[in-house]
Structure formats: structure tokens, C-alpha cells
Amino acid sequence: MRALSWPSSLAITVLLAGSPAVAGPQGTTAELAGRLSAHAGPYISFESLEALDGTTGGQDKAVRFGLAYEDQVRHYTALHPGTNVRVVGPIFNEYLHILVRTPLQVRGPGDLARLQIWAGPPGGEPETLGNLYLDHVALRPASHVTTLSEIFEGFRKDLDVALVTAVPGYQPLCAGMRSGTFTLLPLDYATLRSLAIAPDRRTGIQRPLRVDSIRPGTYFGQEDPVPTVTRSLLLVTRAGTAKAQADTMLLEARAAWDRLPQASKGCGPELDEVPEGLAEATNLRWLAGSPPGATKSIAVRTALWTLFAGVLLGLLTLAWKRGVLAEMWSYWVRDKTPFLVFLALVLSIAAITVGTYLFENDINEKFSTIPESFWSITIYLFSGLEDRTPYTPAGRFIAALGLLIGPVFFAVMSGWLARFFIRREKKMPQNLKNHYLFLNWNERLKNVVREIHHPILIANEGVTVIVLLTDREDLSLQQLKEAGSGRDEAFEDFFLSIGDPTSERGLLNANAQDARTIVIFADEARGNGDERTFRSIFTLRRIAREHGITDMHVVAELCDSSNAPILDEMACDFPGLLERVSTTELRTYLVAQAAMNPGIVRFYTDLLHTTAETNELYSQVIPEEAAGMNFSDYAACVLQAHLPEPLVPVGIKRIVNGQVCLLTNPPRTDPASVLRRGDLLLVFAYGPLTPGILPVPAPASLALSA
Asked: Is residue 132 within 8 Å of residue 196, measured between CB atoms?
């Protein structure tokens, strides 16, 4: 390394009272300062940071650089907010090593009171890491050995504990560990935390130390990390020093440190970047405004966050293209309970995380931060307490809530994930009620199911279960659910029941007695399709009478329209409403109307098909105030109300003698056109009506109708 070519007036001062970085009477810091002074100039001062500062009148203009420990610089800048001292960068880190003579068993500070302790040479700096530790635990050193060799010799005589400040992997310590003379004592978490925020014992101002650990494998037989405290030796300068000059001196200081025999680092941390925590020390004034390596760290963090955002965006795009988001939305529309339960569990876990942190962070390492507390709660949910037991009664109570929530969390999530990802075929629920029951398989069934389970209807009325009863054993429910390469959401609440649609046993297994509507498809694949329909109707009538049902609703499709009179005759004494649908008859009438009214086919198609852009037929109970009005008068009242949902009244839906009766635009002279309490108004609308949207007629309208 080339010598510095600066004027001899440029000097470096050691701003410490001979503080040893490694055990020794002369001190490694003093030796490092001496080597630097050999290049920078003969002047060496062991004064304080005032030598660089001018705010207190103690500035020495010959001194441009100095060495000081990180916590001392923090303390000084806290006392002097307008200081001219600037930090150039760290040179090395020193760690507190608590050496315990073998085979003594020391578990914590309480065991040290009865032992012989060494914490530094007589007359050494009172603020070494060892002295700071002893002062914190209210102990004093009792041994007065002076050199490292005397320390090792003392372990074989009268020395029990030595507090040595050194870089990890210092060779004499490695030799002592290898010989088994002593072992390393890890600091307990409560002591570490206290040291990290310990105030100055003279001024009471906080001068924190940083918490770190000596890495596993640094010393012979060291299998675990050894928690301890550490601090950095900093190169400091006076405000106004050129950055290039300061960077050159920092390189010289690090090179001088590397040339010292005490600088054997083993596997200790490198100093290419600022040690963790140092860059965030806002009370340290860095030369050129930012600490070395900060720009690189910010760039790396920005790149990582950008990568994370890109991966997340890619996953969302893939989920959208594969229909996963649409499927999740359909689950939300169909059943919000799992989502709400999951949200409640997430909020509960967050509350438990914060609660355990508040009660435990001062005394328990496993709950020292919010992320650490969250990790401990996560461990509770997955595998129990392990070694993350809370110490305080309140912390244990809150953690117990986490243990109770764990099974609930897994029960909800496993069930929901099984439904969403595994997509196993569900078994038909027991005791079904108010469901749609279809008898016989027909290709038209797919479109009928899609109409009943249209998202518009589901969003307003919820999901109604559909059951298909058929004797076709080759029919696969999985094939019905698949739509092209995707999944037909309309068949999520669709169940297949294999049985004879004409037998009482098959119908009872499908809960026909509790069905909302029973639809009998014409079995066109067989020559006796209508005969099977009649047999199913006879069986349904017997089931209704046995169960005391008087309002069973059956829609029967005929293959041959000539059988319509038979079905009409059966409807006369049917316990409920029996409606017939003849495809031949409907096609005939539709063709005739299309011939006379161009475009009417599209009109009927829109009415019969549910979409957000077309009108369909819906019904809603009329207000009690409308009872007694004529249909035409109340229809005019509805049209004049300018409702937010466009609709057109077209008729009345009424129960007459237990039968549903639809009156389409009844004339004023017809007595049936007078509205009754409980009547439903039939309207053309774009979707199901909002409850209570129908207007209440004004008194003038009631008088006019009367």
C-alpha cells in the first residue's frame, strides 16, 4: 500500500482512551492509530471528539481524522446536535466474548457474582464492551491480569471468567477453544435487549449497542450461534473534508487493520457494506449525506421488490386467463361464509400477534418484533408451542387463543381448498328441500340448468340445488361439469341421482316430496317416452297424498302433442299444479306468430333467456295499499313512478284454489283485474327486482280506481 502523500500537518487522532479491540496493554486501536499516523503525520491525540468539532471550542485544526466507536459517536451527536463531526465509514467490528473456564456451568449474570472476572487491563478504558456489560449487571472485575497470555494462564489458576473484545475468529481465542480451556457464554435475550438500549451511566442519554451473534463454526466445537453485543470502530472526520480524501483515508485505515496480526478475522463479517443497523442511525452525520453502500442496498432492494411485483402480476394474469379469479368470484357470489370466516381468522391471528408482541417483546426473544411474533403464532398453528413459550400470564393466555383458533383455521381452510382446488364430486346433501328435481336425461337439460343458475339470478336469489334423477348409469357428472377446456360453474350445485324416475323409491331418494319444482323431460330416446311421463306423474301424486302435500308443482314435457288431453285430465285432480309442455305445439304456435309478426321470434327468445342485456319475466308482491285497485290503474302508477330499475307491468300472479294462476293484462271489466292482498305483479325487467321497489299508490289513485 502506497504511503499517503498529504502534508505532515494532516494528522489522525485516536478519540478513545486507549480502548483495546483485542486484549492487550497497548490496545489494537492505539496500534492502528499509530500505523496510520506514520503515514498521515506525527501528531497523535488521545483526546475526545471535541478535537474534530468546533462547536465546544475544543477544535484542533491539525487534526482532520479520528477513530471512535459507533456508540460513542451516537452519544456525542446526541449531546451536540450541531456537531461538525462526520462519519466516513466503519473499519472493523468488535464482539464481546464471554469466556468461561471449563468445566464451570454459567447460565446467566446471576452465576457470575461468585466468580473471578477479568474485563480489561488495569487503567484501561472504562467503556469497553466487557465493562459496559459488567456495569449493566452490577458486577465488578476482580482479577488484574494484564496480557492475553496471563488470561489463558489464569484460567488454570484463579480466573473463572474473562470478557474479551475481539473480532470473531481471533487466533489465540481459537487456540483456547480448541484446547478446551474455556467455552463461550451466550448472552440471554433480556440482557441483550437491555444492552441495546442502555443509557449512559453518567448522562442518562441512550447510547445503544448492536445485537449480533458469533456465527456457528467460528471456533472449534461451536455448533450454535452465540448471541452477543457488537460495535463498529468508525473513521470520523471534520465537516468540510473532501469526500475523495476521506475515502482514501478509509481505504488506508482498512488496509492498516488488515496488516495487524490481531486482525485475523476467521469467518467474521466483512465490511464491504455498512453493518446492519448502522446505515439506519439517523443521528450519525455521514460525509456526502449518505452512508457507504446505501445506494447499492437501495438498488438491490428496489430490484427485489420489482421482481416480486412482476412475479405477483404474472401469477394474477395466469389466474385470470385460466379462469381462477372468475371461479373465486363465483364462489363468493354463491357462498360468502368461507370468505368471511377466513377474514375473521386472519384478523384474529393479527390481533394475537400484536397482543403477544406487546406483552412479551421486552423479555422474550421469540416475540421481540412483530414479524417474530407472527412467526411464533404461525408455529402454534402448524405444530404447537415447541420452544416459543410465552413468559407472561397475559402472553400465555393470548397464545392459548391462538392454539384454539388453529383447528378452526385448518378446518375452514382445508374444506374450502378441497372444494376450490381438488374439486371432488360432492355427494348429494341429505334432507334436501326447495330444490329443482329433473326426471330423465335430455340434452336440453344443460341449457335449463344454466338458466336457473345464471349469475344474475344467483346474485339476487342465491343458489338453488338441482338434482337429476335418471336410470342412465353411463351418465357422468364430471362430463356435465366440463365446458370445453374449462369448468361449467352452473353445475357446481348440481347432483346426479341414479334410479328409476317412475318408481316411488327413486323419487323418494331424490326428495321429490320436498322439491320446489319437478320437471319431467320427455324421454325421446325410448319409444314409450310419454308413457314413462304418465307413470312418473301417478307416482308423484301418490307421494303427495301420502305426505299431505297439496301444492306440488310439476312440469311435464310431452313427446306427442296428441297426449295433451290425457295430461289435462290428470291435472284436474292433481294435488298441486301440473303443467304440460308440448314442444310440437309450442313450435307450431311460434311459427304461426313469426309469420304474422316479423321479429317476434327474437322477442320471445329474449324473454325466455336470462342475460344482463335482455328483459325477462319477474314478479314481486304488491304493496298492501294497492289492494282494491284495478290492475290497469296500478300499472299506470308504476310507469309514472320513474323507478331506478326500468320495468313494465304485464299481469298478475295469484293463487286460486291452491293453484297458481297467471293473468296477463286483464281487462278493466274483468272482476279478476282487481288486485288482492298477496297478489304478485308480473313485470318485464332486466333482472330480479329489488325488494320493496314497487311504489305505494297515492290516495288520489285509490279514489280513481274505486
From this structure: no
